[in-house]
UniProtKB/TrEMBL annotation:
One of its GO terms (cellular component) is cytoplasm. The gene is purL. This is Phosphoribosylformylglycinamidine synthase subunit PurL. The keyword Cytoplasm applies. Substrate binds at residues 113-116, 135, 262, 575. SUPFAM superfamilies: FGAM synthase PurL, linker domain, PurM C-terminal domain-like, PurM N-terminal domain-like. It comes from the Bacteria. GO terms for molecular function: ATP binding; magnesium ion binding; phosphoribosylformylglycinamidine synthase activity. Pathway: Purine metabolism; IMP biosynthesis via de novo pathway; 5-amino-1-(5-phospho-D-ribosyl)imidazole from N(2)-formyl-N(1)-(5-phospho-D-ribosyl)glycinamide: step 1/2. CDD domains: PurL_repeat2. NCBIfam families: FGAM_synth_II.
Length: 781
């Protein structure tokens, strides 16, 4: 029945369990039977209202409260010498530079997923995923400087997969390009295990001066502060989005669930970002930044933003729903409270600053003239009383302790015993190793991502030193501007994203370790030192012990590897229930464990950043990392529809020492180019370097393994190019660091350039380049 026909409250304890379940499903609260009972008997101690059922369902969802994952996230190292804000606010912040006066300059990092919405409504789901992530960074007082995305789709031969890919990419571009933020990195994988549940994860970077940070909580002495809602008029779009993100994807409910997907307005989003950045400057000049709080409206809309802004500062709040500007007549109050309308922010402002903030948006930047109904409005206040109260007219919609609302529920889920390792290792002998290499280069998970990256704006803002696809990580110079001191303008920042679903399908723990190691390798081969990482932990149904085991193992893998490599986790999210119905029996199938990692690195001088492209002929090629029989989950195996069992198990001590040594040598100018060894093995890595430069190569990979395993094993390592006169010094330095560094061959000139490997591969660089350049497009058509 319509929301207006519901009674004001629901006496849960008078109902039997079947009736409670039916009621929670009909209201789409996301609450379980026991949670509904607990809400009445333990938290409120009275029958809950409709608004309270929906609010606690949202705040108590996996998406908001991390009720299954919270204990596991405590393993992460979230602090460090240069960490200013760890994983506890809307975005993390890490210091990357100091000027001559000792003032700090920082990078803001946010990482979110928008999986379920993108599976159902891919353009809007992906676009609003970008919008929400950008707002997380903006509300920390930062200038938004970069985007990246890491995408996973199903079988590329399926028409729906191609449509999803095209619409998701169009949605990311449709938001990222108009707001004027460059895309500098990203990942793309196709695997049939994502058939009914794609992954769309987005990373945003911002730049901020340390004395310009704004926090997403009410500051000290905030009793009586105004709550100012800024942005689009509230509508019903996205209502129930947070709860929907904590459901399995059921084909039978697709049409119903589409209503939980928000609608983007990138041009208004850009306008509010720019106006907010100017307001930051004004407040800073007045010395008032420390007196405000600022938060974006994401999951749960006005309700979650207001209660979290208040409670995280130790306060409560009163919100008057009738003061909210709305786009539709007769919107039910609980919808206005919890709808996830996009392009909205919430300020906590002392009354003496309220008119300044309101006039800035409404008059100076004329929000209503940019988008009909957009405005800044006071909708409530912060209170010393720690209760969260929402009213509409004479009715009290919500009245509960703010801390009870935000804490949600907590579960200790059953975890299955450790899963037995896979045993099968296929025996494969190639008739033509050169052809196999070409097949790998054209594989949709290896081939050039240019068709993807060229959809995005890669150079806007003029600070991109190495574009997406030009290297193992994007490189930015965020402080190369007259507004910053000369001594920090050359500082470079790198960004990369990584995860191999095939590794994780074999071993959830080692696969998570490998995702962090891959991000580390992609960072250090640019010459940058890793400074922080974020993760989107995407897994199946936590109510199933096997899936909870995968999550527990994956979280531990990320925690162990990041701690050993000394890279703090400062941002991220958890996305569970990534499952979809499959087959006539409507059985649920989960995605493979998917810890999506993003890593930020720092170069003291961006001008020394390395790319994979060879720089000349006659130079020495060196290999770090022995080639091992670790082909499990490899692209080579996938060509034969095999998964295998033995995935790479890197020695973290060796990887760490090798990476830091490479950074030192890069700073000294002793390395000409470098590339990490990952998908496709060293054969693919060397081929990509030749393709990027036009130079050929002659190489012998040492080892006693079958030649295909030498060339296509995805054991971790790097390939480096040095001038002949530097080779001895470079080899010696790695040896002193306890790292094996082997000379494997040389580069050759561009005249009739060829890729020659171990006397079994001899193909023209031009042929490899064409195969590599057209591979993804050929599959998508």
């Amino acid at each position: 029945m319509p929301a207006s026909d519901h009674p004001d409250s629901f006496d849960i304890i008078t109902m039997d369990d079947g009736r409670i379940e039916e009621l929670m499903n009909s209201l789409r609260t996301g609450l379980t039977v026991q949670e509904a009972k607990d809400l009445q008997t333990r938290i409120l101690k009275r029958p809950p209202t409709l608004a309270e059922l929906i609010l606690f369902g949202i705040e108590g969802s996996e998406h908001c409260s991390y009720k299954s994952s919270r204990p596991y996230l405590k393993q992460f190292t979230t602090e460090g010498m240069d960490v200013i804000v760890g994983a506890k606010e809307d975005a993390g912040i890490v210091r990357v530079a100091r000027d001559a006066a000792g003032k700090g300059y920082a990078i803001v990092l946010s990482h979110e997923s928008h999986n379920h919405p993108s599976q159902l409504v891919p353009y809007e789901g992906a676009a609003t995923g970008v919008g929400g992530n950008v707002r997380d960074v903006c509300c920390m007082g930062a200038r938004v400087i970069a985007l990246a995305d890491d995408l996973r789709f199903g079988d590329i031969s399926k028409p729906r997969t191609k449509w999803l890919y095209e619409e998701v990419v169009r949605g990311i571009a449709g938001y990222g390009n108009p707001i004027g933020v460059p895309s500098v990195a990203g990942g793309l994988q196709f695997d049939k295990s994502y058939e009914g549940n794609c992954l769309v994860t987005v990373v945003t970077l911002g730049a901020v001066e340390e004395d310009g940070i704004i926090h997403s909580y009410a500051p000290e002495n905030a009793d009586g502060y105004d709550l100012i809602l800024v942005g689009k008029p509230t509508d019903s779009s996205g209502f129930g989005g947070a709860s929907f993100a904590s459901f399995q994807l059921d084909d039978a409910k697709k049409e119903v669930n589409k209503g939980a997907v928000q609608e983007p307005n990138a041009f208004l989003g850009r306008h509010i970002i720019r106006s907010s950045e100017k307001l930051f400057e004004i407040l800073k000049e007045k010395g008032e930044l420390h007196r405000v709080g600022f938060k974006d409206l994401g999951a749960g809309g006005i309700a979650c933003a207001s209660v979290e802004l208040a409670e995280s500062g130790g306060y409560g709040a009163v919100v008057d729903i009738d003061k909210v500007h709305v786009a539709e007549e007769n919107l039910a109050p609980h919808v206005v409270l919890c709808a996830e309308t996009q392009e909205r922010y919430l300020w906590a402002s002392p009354p003496d600053l309220t008119s300044l903030i309101m006039d800035h948006y409404n008059v100076t930047y004329a929000l209503g003239g940019v988008s009909a109904g957009a405005a800044a409005r006071v909708i409530g206040r912060i209170t010393a009383d720690t209760r969260y109260v929402v009213t509409s007219g004479a009715k009290v919609l919500v009245d509960a302790p703010a801390s009870d609302v935000t804490k949600g529920f907590l579960y200790q889920r059953d975890v299955a015993p450790a899963l037995p390792p896979l045993q099968k290792e296929p025996v494969i002998k190639e008739k033509n190793v050169g052809k196999t290499l070409l097949d790998i280069l054209s594989h949709p998970n290896v081939a050039s991502r240019a068709p993807l990256y060229n959809t995005y704006d890669k150079q806007v803002q003029g600070m991109v030193a190495q574009e997406a696809g030009a290297g193992d990580a994007g490189v930015l110079t965020p402080f190369d501007d007259p507004r910053y001191p000369a001594e920090i303008r050359n500082v470079g920042i790198t960004l990369t994203t990584d995860q191999n679903p095939r590794h994780n399908a074999i071993d959830a723990y080692q696969g998570a370790v490998n995702a962090v190691v891959e991000a580390w390798c992609n960072t250090v081969v640019t010459g940058a030192r890793p400074v922080a990482l974020s993760d989107c932990l995407c897994y199946g149904n936590p109510e199933k012990p096997n899936h909870m085991r995968q999550f527990a193992d994956g979280a531990k893998g990320v925690a162990d590897s990041s701690r050993f490599l000394e890279v703090p986790v400062i941002a991220g999210n958890v996305s569970l229930y990534n499952e979809s119905s499959k087959g006539d029996r409507n059985e649920m199938r989960a995605i493979p464990p998917s810890p999506m990692i993003a890593m930020v690195g720092k170069l003291e001088n961006a001008a020394v950043a390395l790319s994979p492209a060879f720089t000349g002929s006659g130079n020495t090629l060196l290999m770090i990392g022995e080639r091992k029989d670790e082909c499990g989950g490899s692209i080579w195996y996938s060509l034969h529809d095999e998964l295998g069992a033995r995935i790479p198990e890197p020695d973290l001590s060796e990887i760490k020492a090798a990476g830091l040594t490479l950074c030192d040598l890069t700073a000294e100018g002793r390395i000409l180019s470098a590339h990490d060894i990952s998908e496709g093995g060293i054969a693919a890595a060397l081929s990509e370097q030749a393709i990027a430069s036009g130079y050929g190569l002659e190489v012998i990979i040492p080892g006693s393994l079958q030649v295909e395993r030498l060339l296509f094993s995805e054991s971790f390592g790097f390939v480096m190019e040095t001038a002949p006169e530097e080779t001895e010094v470079v080899v010696k330095r790695f040896k002193e660091a306890g790292v094996s560094c082997v000379e494997i061959g040389r580069t050759t000139d561009r005249t009739d350039a060829r890729i020659r490997l171990n006397s079994v591969v001899d193909i023209p660089v031009s042929q490899a380049a064409h195969t590599y350049a057209t591979g993804l497009t050929a599959h998508i058509r």
